[in-house]
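target protein:
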Amino acid sequence: MSGLRRVLHPILIAAVVFAVLPFALPRFGSAGTLATEIAIYTLYAMGFNLLLGYTGLVSFGASAFFGTASYAAGLASVHVTANPFLCILFGTVFAAALGLVLGAIILRRRGIYFSLLTLAFTQLFYEIAFKWTDFTGGENGLQGVTRPVLTSNLAYHFFVAAVVLVAMYAIWRIVHSPFGRVLQAIRDNRQRVQCLGYNVANYQLGAFVLSAAVIGLAGSLLTFLIQSVYADNLNWQHAGDPVMMTILGGIHHFLGPLWGSIIFIVLSDQLSSMTEHWWLFFGALLIGFILLSPEGISGIYLRLIGSPRWTLTAESLCRDGPPGRGVSSQRPLREPALSYIHRRSRARHSSRSACGSRLRVRQPRVAPVSPSQDRFRRPARRRRRDRGRSEAPTRDGWARRKSRATQRGLGAAGV
């Protein structure tokens, strides 16, 4: 079983799915371009899950980066160059820069205030895109985006699939790097990571910028799929799309966004062709997943094979067999990230300097103290208590105290 799991790498599974989808979906009455849309929204949800699943930040501002990157790539195509590759790169860089600016502002707050700020910025960008008709096209959208290369839908699909697979592999390597381990430890116990000496704010800002770049790449790819840009992607009504896709697939599973995007897009396409009130049925399905399987479709599969654990990293994928007794399905194994940063903190705070030489710490020398000096260092109450304990039980002690009092009286009288 372990060898099979090593062979079935998540990137390989995603590659097989992307290769099969454009030929399988038309058999169910869906358009072939829906497969390209699934690949793009998979990347969209994975960028969002970098914050939710790996860092523990609930953001409703993913659509802000998705929509602004789409506009940036579209405007570059209309006014600057017709090269789609340069326009996609420009949209990605623009989203990353916007994520750096917004992250520096939004990450000053935590919890519900962080989530509300992301939603507020999303609606702010939507109003700008919808009202600025001369620049963005307003309600009619930005038209005139061309794709001079990769003109066929199938060719563009495989280009998008290749880009998404490369981005997924980069995310896989990042979450297994020291940076990714610290992010997972922040998700598990922020206070402990902060006590170990890590700058939590900087790590969260880095995750925020990385998530914005990945989401911006997805938005730029969507621009050249539909060859136009609309403000609807910035609306608050679409702010929950990546949240729903991640929940349907599984928040704590690397391929969860892939399965969630397939379910979300295919069902929305099929149900909307049957009735205009398709959200009633889709909402009931989402409620059922949340109540019966909080880990989504990935959690259902892992329960069936007897391995209810998270699959965000390679360590959890390579563990064999069902969990032992006393391990609950609702209590995933999350210790590797914290153990890793504990080891790094011990290495960082070891007695070796940066150049590798061992630091020699000298103990301070303390001069010996005589019993007479030490007697005056103790508090007066303690001195009286010690003197009473040592002298009270004996008759000779009373005699010595009386003789000392007599000597002090004679000395005061001048005798």
